[in-house]
Amino acid sequence: MGQRFLQLLNGHPWFEVVEVMASDQSAGRSYAEAVGSRWKLTTAIPDSVASLRVKGPRAPLRAHLLFSALDASVAGGLEEEYARAGHLVSSNARNHRMNPLVPLVIPEVNRDHMELLERQAYSNGGGLVTNPNCSAIVIAMALAPLHHSFGIEAAIATTFQATSGAGYPGVPSLDILGNVIPFVSGEEPKIESETLKILGRLGPKGVEAADFPVSALCHRVPVIDGHLVALIVKLGRRATEKEILAAWRSFRPLRKLELPSAPLDPIDARTEDDRPQPRLDVDRAGGMGLTVGRLRRCPVLDWKFEALGHNTIRGAAGAAILNAEILVRDGRA
Amino acid sequence: MGQRFLQLLNGHPWFEVVEVMASDQSAGRSYAEAVGSRWKLTTAIPDSVASLRVKGPRAPLRAHLLFSALDASVAGGLEEEYARAGHLVSSNARNHRMNPLVPLVIPEVNRDHMELLERQAYSNGGGLVTNPNCSAIVIAMALAPLHHSFGIEAAIATTFQATSGAGYPGVPSLDILGNVIPFVSGEEPKIESETLKILGRLGPKGVEAADFPVSALCHRVPVIDGHLVALIVKLGRRATEKEILAAWRSFRPLRKLELPSAPLDPIDARTEDDRPQPRLDVDRAGGMGLTVGRLRRCPVLDWKFEALGHNTIRGAAGAAILNAEILVRDGRA
Amino acid sequence: MGQRFLQLLNGHPWFEVVEVMASDQSAGRSYAEAVGSRWKLTTAIPDSVASLRVKGPRAPLRAHLLFSALDASVAGGLEEEYARAGHLVSSNARNHRMNPLVPLVIPEVNRDHMELLERQAYSNGGGLVTNPNCSAIVIAMALAPLHHSFGIEAAIATTFQATSGAGYPGVPSLDILGNVIPFVSGEEPKIESETLKILGRLGPKGVEAADFPVSALCHRVPVIDGHLVALIVKLGRRATEKEILAAWRSFRPLRKLELPSAPLDPIDARTEDDRPQPRLDVDRAGGMGLTVGRLRRCPVLDWKFEALGHNTIRGAAGAAILNAEILVRDGRA
Amino acid sequence: MGQRFLQLLNGHPWFEVVEVMASDQSAGRSYAEAVGSRWKLTTAIPDSVASLRVKGPRAPLRAHLLFSALDASVAGGLEEEYARAGHLVSSNARNHRMNPLVPLVIPEVNRDHMELLERQAYSNGGGLVTNPNCSAIVIAMALAPLHHSFGIEAAIATTFQATSGAGYPGVPSLDILGNVIPFVSGEEPKIESETLKILGRLGPKGVEAADFPVSALCHRVPVIDGHLVALIVKLGRRATEKEILAAWRSFRPLRKLELPSAPLDPIDARTEDDRPQPRLDVDRAGGMGLTVGRLRRCPVLDWKFEALGHNTIRGAAGAAILNAEILVRDGRA
């Protein structure tokens, strides 16, 4: 995931990568040496980053804003230490997501949750912000306009998840070539809880989660990039197909803010029979756009449809960067 | 699909392939010539079939029992003609499946529906029997023990369908390599209606469909053989995990009949985290076994789980052959 | 292939698409209607093209320069008709490639062959120019610097070809998922003859093909875009690894011409163990760059190495566009 | 690879698995526990093996005949220790393959090399036998009949290797989905040396390798099982297509020995345009059969063709078992 951060931050109009922190094994080497042949993106390592000397865990850092792609096994403590040291950490790690005082934010959906930063115990500008799990982002973004317009009373999400979500080396090819694995470790509970926190409201004790049941069924499929999700919803009030499409298409809350990573149209609602598809639609809006489609009535709940998002851009590195952008725009970073 | 019929009937202890009927273009050539390089199974064309002279549509046939893998564009009329001529047709085509007087049968589930044969208008031993759509078979078999034991009040099925289900040439590689297509033409209505007919009861006017809503969300994935289905059910009465597993595991209604194609254990209920998987489990019991697993509670309905079956064996040719076997055992063929 | 032309010509600084010709079935409809769901690129149909009314075969066209992605079954005659009518046709079809008076050109390699246009029988600015087969381009580009520097005495090319080369629907998924097909219809003779024509010289009777044996072994692999070729060469004189790398790296004959589609570095010669790879390297330089690597001595001939190019960009539509650009630069269009 | 051994030995008419040795981590647990979810074959763990208590390295073993699927990092020393202790070791590990006193055998090709056992320093029935690398077996088997009939003067082998050859977890899915990797670590030298030892002759100092150059170009492709090899040969004397096909088809040196794992027809020489293919042909003769095809003249050397074999059956576990069978038949085990 660190690779995506560096790729997306390369040439970013607001942010510049001035230092890189990684494990003790990598510390002291140039980034290019440290990553070696594990660089798996189709663009080259940005020149400005390749020669940066990698710092080790807990090394003092000079940037105020930090992006964390740390592994969950170490992210919890390290991120807190840096927040305590006065850094504002935009993290993609799962450790603090469900902490009621830590914002779990998709800027288009719950930008106001960033106010939690003011309630955190850190001083000197320190703070902790998180973005959701790669599947939860797709689901929460697709549901948000429906929740706001009609209320959601129940949601079921069956995922078709790309292998890049598991990192490198990640999923062995023997497990996934010509196959589907009906299991992604830890994923279903994350989706079921994070989605409700994102769609929740600020209350006196932090975020009050939205109050409807979410059920997730997670699967890994032989796709490199792009999480497709088959969604079914029960709505609080009747809605027509036209109203639902309109809710998605008019969902452009950040448009006037001119954030570098925010797509003009966060949600593209398509009406063909067979879209969205990962191969054709995953890179829409530089991987920051969500695509929904196949809206049709459900005999059990109310409506069923498909949603697709890029799991390592909109669902991870791009999400953390967009969170940082909204923090800047709102004067918090 | 005709290829699978010939492969599975090769060496069958009860049936022998004595003639093959195909389109006018193929008529008059040996089967081996007619199929040419379109034979796509990993076993060779059976010797006994390779040299059979292919007959054209409407050619008189001498076998009483016919297996139909005809394309739906012609199956409707041709199958009726042969039934009128005194043949008993076990068809994999969709055309007559929803006719209330035509049995739509999975022998383990609704063997009694074969009684409809006695109500059909054909004389001289003529008749029409069908097996369900390849996805509907997987779904109906997985649901049947639950419906019998606990009653089903709603079911949602999200499919991960193999490309062999679309025949040859079928799905273009550009559409499916590294991709998922959230659409299989005509599939969702078939699943939603056929499942209920299979789980229905014989009544005075034919089959009375089971009375609960079924919702299907169909997807094509880059898998050669094996339809995986993520299922969610609402049950008529409370059931524990143990009771559900027991319902599946004790579902062996044909065991004493010693049908050549019926597996000893039609349903294998597994308890690992990550099974069933198409690549590992599709060929269980010669492709006639269903595998279920990943049973867990659902926050929206009651239970969720996964089911897997071989789409061209249990889901098509093997299904039609098993139907013929039960007809023989029950003295109807 | 027509789709790639339209995608690459969208926003082209020199060329503008003003009309589209296709089959009689498509004629009269807007391009967007005519192509429908067969548009398989990850970018949308360019707006300026979507609404163009498609013309039928032999319709009068007003542009001087035509790009032909016609199917070989009709390209032969149609292209000649348009050349006779005064159009300059840059064709990706195979029909006229081996005609000794028709240039078969990779601008970096044999730009001078364009002089053949002056010997063609067409008047009023009419003419016919072709680009090589998608595999032959990769092979000829990789060999050209070696041929110029050291002379080539024999070359063997084993291909790993992407499925997009076969068009749409093209290769059935049942043939290629988890598989390799050791056959691409008509491909080996094309490679063996086109490579030698490209590396040949202008003579009194047209192009005199280079005089060394080329052997091609063609395979289709489950890759969407990017032809990888394992190459073995026998050289006319001794060369060191360093000299060969230098020959490739200094191969930049078009650099000063500032052609819109010509990469600054046509050949990227890499020295890692495991490059080039289709997934990582195919899009280098907008799909117009060739990547070579894995140079090592061969116990049978002299050297072995790998070459990779984008089969529908550098190997087809981009090739035809680059041919048109050099024609413009050289005052021929 | 140990898994394939156990699968293939299950129900073997001559051999019975009485004990299993693995690493210290596994020692003391039942085999089923030790392998856990890493069992990746489509058949279940054999019952007779599942409950065997795994022994640790150097544990005394009671069987005379041992099959070694040890990792090369430990196989060297351990196999020697067991040979010294009087065990006859049939090894799939690479460590001792090129030792001139250790037979490197494909029974159909160089059964006589087993005589080297008599020259080894082990007493009490101890000895060491190896089978070739998974690619080298395919290549040597395909070449052997040509070498015997016509003499080979040079051979070039470009491989398309399945991922199962790299074990589990082995090749990461991110590296191979929709991709080709032009590198398999250590593979090219193994092919180039092992092939010549296999085709060599017994001499006073052990095996004298055959004396012609072999060049290998190795690639990993997204295929689960089956190494396809594109081969080019220069022959010592002229041969017609008919003679070459006859050389392959008459190559049945073990036919009368009735070895359980030896196919009746070790080499199937096909004449279609597009065979062999991994998906269709890999399992011929239980994975022990080689399939060749696409024989055609080569403009550079003499002939080119394709060969395919199952890399973990004929190319590994099945190879070691067949070696043991020939040792039994020849009275050496």
Strand order of the largest sheet of chain A: 9-6-10-13-12-11
Shape of chain A: globular
Radius of gyration of chain A: 19 Å
In the predicted model, the low-confidence regions of chain A spanning at least 5 consecutive residues are none
Strand content bin of chain A: 15-25%
The proportion of residues forming helix of chain A, as a percent range, comes to: 25-40%
Count of individual helical segments of chain A: 11
Average pLDDT metric of chain A: 97
Count every beta strand of chain A, where a strand is a DSSP E run of 2 or more residues: 13
Most extensive protein-chain contact, per-chain counts = A-B, 42 and 42 residues
Oligomer designation: homotetramer
> What is the helix/strand order of chain A?
HEHHEEHEHEHEHHEEEEHEHEEH
Distance between the termini of chain A: 23 Å
* Structural class based on helices, strands and sheet pairing of chain A: alpha/beta
Biggest beta sheet summary of chain A: 6 strands, mixed
Can you walk through the features of this model?
- 4 copies of one chain form a homotetramer.
- With 333 residues, chain A is of the alpha/beta class.
- The mean pLDDT of chain A is 97.
- In chain A, the strands form 4 sheets. Chain A has a 6-stranded mixed β-sheet with strand order 9-6-10-13-12-11. In chain A, strands 3-4-5 form a 3-stranded parallel β-sheet, with helices on both faces.
- Chains in contact: A-B, A-C, A-D, B-C, B-D, C-D.
- Chains A and B meet through β6, β9, β10 and α10 of A and β6, β9, β10 and α10 of B.
